[in-house]
Amino acid sequence: MLNREIVELLNEQINKELFSAYLYLGMADYYADQNLDGFENWFYVQAQEERDHAMLFRRYLQNNDEKVTLLAIEAPSNSYDVYEAPLAASLKHEQFVTASINNIYAAAYRDKDFRTMEFLNWFIKEQGEEEKNATDLIRKFELFGSDAKGLYMLNQELLGRVYAPPTLVFN
Ligand SMILES: [Fe+2]
Questions:
Q1: Of 98, 75, 94, nearest to 23 (Cα)?
Q2: Of 20, 23, 58, 166, which is least surrounded by CB within 10 A?
Q3: Cα 99 to ligand 1 centroid, rounded to whole Å
Q4: Could you say which DSSP state residue 28 is in?
Q5: Could you tell me the distance, in angstroms and rounded to a whole number, from the CA of residue 54 to the centre of ligand 1?
Q6: pLDDT per residue over 62-84, tens digit each?
C-alpha cells in the first residue's frame, strides 16, 4: 500500500504529463501553421513522450493496486508571437515538471517509500535530459534562427527526430 499523499501526487502527475502532451501538441500545431515542419515534428515527438510518461504513472499506480483518478486537462495556449516563444515556454514548463517530480520524490523519501523512489529515479534522470534538450534548442535558435538559411537548416535537422518508446518498462 502506498500512502495517500503519494497516491494523490502520482494521480496529479498523470494529469501534469497529459497536460504536457497537450501543451506540446499545441506547439506542434503552431509550427505546422508556420510551415516549419521540423519544429512541428520535434514537438509532436515530445507530445508522444509526454503521453508515455502519463501511462507510466498510471501503470505504477495500478501495479500497486491503487485507483487511477483522471482529472480534467486544461487547454494550453497555442498562439505565440515569435518562433522562439514556444522554445522558451517549453524550458519553463520542463522546470515546472522537474519541481513537481522532485516534490513527489521528497514525499516518498519522508515516508521511506523506497519503491516509489526507485520508480521515480528514471523520471529524475529524464527531467535532466528534458531540460538539456530544451536549453540546447534555445541555444541553436539563438545561433542560427535569425537567418533564413540557418532557420531552414535547423528545421531540417529537427525533422530527423524520431519517436522512441521510453526505456522504462511499462509493467
Ligand atoms: Fe514528462
A1: 75
A2: 166
A3: 12
A4: H
A5: 7
A6: 999 999 999 999 999 889 999 99
